[in-house]
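Hi D.,

Good news: the full-assembly prediction came through. Inputs first.
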Amino acid sequence: MRPLDWTVLFAALAGIVAYGLWKGRRTRDLEDFLVASRRQRWHHVALSIMATQASAITFLSTPGQAFSDGMRFVQIYLGLPIAMVVISITAVPIYHRLKVYTAYEYLEGRFDLKTRTLAALLFLALRGLSTGVSIYAPSLILSVIMGWDIRVVILIIGASVMLYASTGGARAVDNANFLQFLIIMGGMIVAFVTLVRLLPADVSFLEATHVAGNLGRLNAIDFSFDIHNQYNFWSGLVGGCFLSLSYFGTDQSQVQRYLTGESVAQSRLGLLFNGLVKVPMQFFILFIGAAVFAFYQFTQPPVFFNPVETERARTGQHAAQFRAIESDYASAFEAKRAAALNYVGALRTGDTAGADAAAQELKAAEVRADTVRAGAVEIIKEFDAKPSDANYVFLTFVTRYLPAGVVGLVLAAVFLASMSSTASEWSALASTTVIDIQRRLVKRDAGERYYFVSSKLATALWGLFAVSFAQYAGHLGSLIEAVNRLGSLFYGTILGIFLLAFYFKRVGGTAAFAGAVAGELVVLYCFFFTQIAYLWFNVIGALIVIAAALAVNPLTRRQK
Amino acid sequence: MRSRANEIEKPHADEAPPFGRSWATLYVVVLATLAILVALFYLFTRTFG
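Then the structure:
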């Protein structure tokens, strides 16, 4: 980090906090605080939706995913545009006409109080736990790359968000999200352009792309069907659609974003813009990872991308063995680089047979380098049971090779991505706590002013909880992974309840509640006793809720 | 709350989109773009894979 990087980083962070505070300074009442007085235009709604979904991990893990596993991850987003259309047709008009503050309010009108409370509590539990992880995970990576104490990184993110989210509410959050997303995408585009310019002078961008493709990193589409594999066209289209329906249609952190739209039309346009842009955007971020992979075919990468764990291995009890592996890896890399250059040379001359032979040679060199690397990973396993460096690939590249100023911009983009998704989560948690729990169950008819102050306090308290959780998350080990999976276990059930509400008008609250219990039990069975890919849990959960509710509904009506 | 929900959910005239002929047109544009992207991704995979 050079002085210019520090300047860019702190200017971006301070600028966003100041912008959020400025935009939120006129927040005067509950409607303003929770839904920005429902006055946002579609482009604000759209970018706020996208900034909320794209957390820091999106910009750290996604390039790493393409680097290590290729671009097939993009298929997980294929169902999203379909979901945007369905939500625009169904949910948006209903939420707007009812003028609800939360998605769960609608469930009481449609079913009953217990169904509303169940959905609200599930959201609070799932999102409440995951908001701590969504600060902790990028903070861990940033602290390792920047050499900072993780507690400092967590505090910077937490305090920055707290300042504008707890004072300006949804108005501040949505406006800050808008600007944050522009800076984030600007940073990624600048990083990509710089990366292309860093390729060797004698290798064109197209040739480097062919090298990455030959080594299996450009596998964007796979039409083969396998229910155990979540990265294929079918699971992405169907499972991804149900996941997006759950997330955008029933998760308050997203619903709140389009509730701020000034009309049904503005909210719909925001969602549809997301449907148009999200898939190419994810493709672009994955392609950055594939391009980093291509870059490292001509420039030697570290044997392991997490610098802290690499240093521990270098100074640990197997230091000599680790250094020998690093030396072997350097030799394996040189052989691979020569093979890559041979392949590029054959492509350039149009020698098809030569290119095929060079491609095989390159793949063999890749296998050898991977085998050497596996030895290093075995040593690292002594102090990390599940070593994975995919999340460190992109930032390692950024900090080592990008010029002054661009490093600060990319790091700022990661910080801002963490702040935008965190701010939306806290705002949504506060609105659900106050509207669905406090105002409905604890203290009714206390007056708008009381709930306005309560919402500010709730945002701050959820912020404190998230920061505290993140500070201790390092001690929770595998629980972090469990929290990350919790969402996929409950999303299908919540979606099933909402689909019943939207499309099955004859189904009553008791039948919906029974269907939810049945759906959840089936999902838990699939999770513990089958190998079904998690994307399908959303489909299975939602369909079981609907089927069970339809079966039970006649019995509950007869009892009445 | 229940009666309010039922009352407001009754179908009524849809708000026109600020651009595009109708909402149906915009929905078709989103879905057609998805189909084109899938085709382009397939070509991309075939070309470089």
